[in-house]
Write a structure and sequence with these properties.
Four Helix Bundle (Hemerythrin (Met), subunit A); 5 helices; mainly alpha
Length: 132
């Protein structure tokens, strides 16, 4: 591949990463809003929708250079999936607190892209992900 073509590809990947980053606040807000609604108006369908939204971040985060976001989303996704499988509605206070803690981690992780992972590459799992 010649240098010009490689540079164009890098520029395209960077543009995709920037577009992804620009959409993150809205995606995170939708997840937080869905959780907020669920706390006052429980619905199994909305809970499954919450899981789906989080699941979407699990794969896309690492793809676009947000491995910490991907790790945080994976942790929340596993928690939600377990609750769905167990049919644990309504949720206990502790379960709600666990979800809120993971949501906070998701929000924090969405604020920064990886510094060393180029777009399109998946970073090695963080220490936190390795503990799971």
């Amino acid at each position: 591949m010649d240098e010009d073509k490689a540079a164009r590809m890098q520029a395209q990947l960077q543009a995709m990463r920037e577009a992804y980053a620009a959409q993150l606040p809205e995606k995170i807000a939708q997840i937080v809003e869905t959780w907020s609604v669920l706390q006052h108006d429980w619905s199994d369908e909305k809970f499954v929708a919450l899981h789906r939204r989080v699941h979407g971040l699990t794969g896309s985060g690492a793809t676009f250079g947000f491995s910490r976001l991907s790790d945080a989303a994976r942790a929340l996704e596993v928690l939600l999936k377990g609750l769905i499988a167990a049919g644990k509605a309504p949720l206990s206070r502790r379960q709600c607190e666990d979800i809120e803690r993971h949501l906070k981690g998701l929000q924090d992780a969405s604020l920064r892209a990886d510094e060393k992972t180029p777009p399109g590459k998946t970073a090695a799992p963080s220490d936190e992900a390795a503990k799971r």
